[in-house]
Amino acid sequence: MKFIDLRSDTVTMPTEKMRKAMAQAPVGDSSLRDDPTVNKLEELAAKKVGKEAATFIPSGTFGNQLSLFTHTRRGHEVIIGKDYHIVVHEVGASSVIAGVQLRTLETDNGTMDPYLVEKAIRRDDIHEPETGLICVENANLEGAVVKLENLQEIKKIAEKHSIPVHLDGARIFNAALALNVDASEIAACADSVMFCLSKGLAAPMGSILAGSKEFIQRARKNQKLMGGGMRQVGIVAAAGIIALEEMTLRLPEDHKNAKYLASELSKIKNIEVNPKTNDINMVFFKLDDNIIHEDILVKKFYDKNIKINKKENGEYRFVTHIDVTREDIDYVIKTIKEIIE
């Protein structure tokens, strides 16, 4: 039984080409740096985002927290948007692993005001924590992209105060597509960048943390400390190579499908599509519980072989990806009309 899964672009299945590459991948011990497939992936990944070096890691959350752990000291403060993934969806890991506190700022659809960023940097005062890091995010987890000029301005402020910048670029290739720039131009606005191979790129697992050679050397030791010293993971790195070489090139299809989905949903009575969060492959919309309760909607969709999540912050989120076709979207639209009309 086939399900149309709109919950996230993390639910994709590896392609047949990926499965064959995984089965045939030469492997070694990646902790000892002799897994040729992992080494190839890391070199390719670093080149893709214009950084000197990279390390293959289990997940995006792992990569973000590894970056915080490597950039900062215990007791440091990190300036970050209040709606960023590190704050909202990483279970408070920054306080446990890096031992830092987060100074959260309001954002405009994921965009921080550079003036407020600079204002939030702590003085050299015995009573205040030291600002150890600034975190930016592109694309934002709520489907909006941040303009390159904004990131560049924040980077200049960081350099002025000798503070590093980390970019949560989980969907950096989606952001680059939406901005019509190369991913390396976005990554240039940060000292380190994390991006996912399993969000929209069809790899079964894994993310990348990239930065300078010196930063990645320190990060590798912290990666081991955090339990991320992986062994014969060339098996999954093989899928990551295909993800970067091929899957990044087909993202325009997902963006077009998301625009189409948003357009068709907006034509349905009682559905309010959020136009500010439709920059990449996500569609956010409101549908009042008085029309149909979220539990009932999720159940009725499931009965029609469609998987969706419940609302978050009052909105539903539908995500397009390689396993969602235009025909699937038409079926989803037909189904939701039948359910609520």
Characterization of this structure:
The protein is α/β, with parallel strands linked by helices and 341 residues long. The protein has two domains: 98 residues, Aspartate Aminotransferase, domain 1; 232 residues, Aspartate Aminotransferase, domain 2, CATH 3.40.640. Helices cover 41% and strands 15% of the residues. The strands form three sheets. A seven-stranded mixed beta sheet has the order 2-8-7-6-5-3-4, with helices on both faces. Helix 7 links the parallel strand 5 and strand 6. It is globular, with a radius of gyration of 20 Å. The chain starts with a strand and ends with a helix. The mean pLDDT is 97.
Characterize this entry briefly.
The protein is an alpha/beta fold and 341 residues long. It is built from 14 helices and twelve strands. GO terms for molecular function: L-allo-threonine aldolase activity; transaminase activity.
List keywords for this structure.
alpha/beta, Aspartate Aminotransferase, domain 1, 2 domains, 3-stranded antiparallel beta sheet, 41% helix, globular
Write the layout of secondary structure elements.
Layout: E1 4-5, H1 16-24, H2 36-48, E2 53-57, H3 60-71, E3 77-81, H4 85-88, H5 93-96, E4 101-105, H6 114-120, E5 131-137, H7 148-160, E6 165-168, H8 172-179, H9 183-187, E7 192-196, E8 207-211, H10 213-225, H11 234-245, H12 251-266, E9 272-273, E10 282-286, H13 294-303, E11 306-307, E12 316-319, H14 326-340
Parallel strand pairs: 1-11, 3-4, 3-5, 5-6, 6-7
Antiparallel strand pairs: 2-8, 7-8, 9-10, 10-12
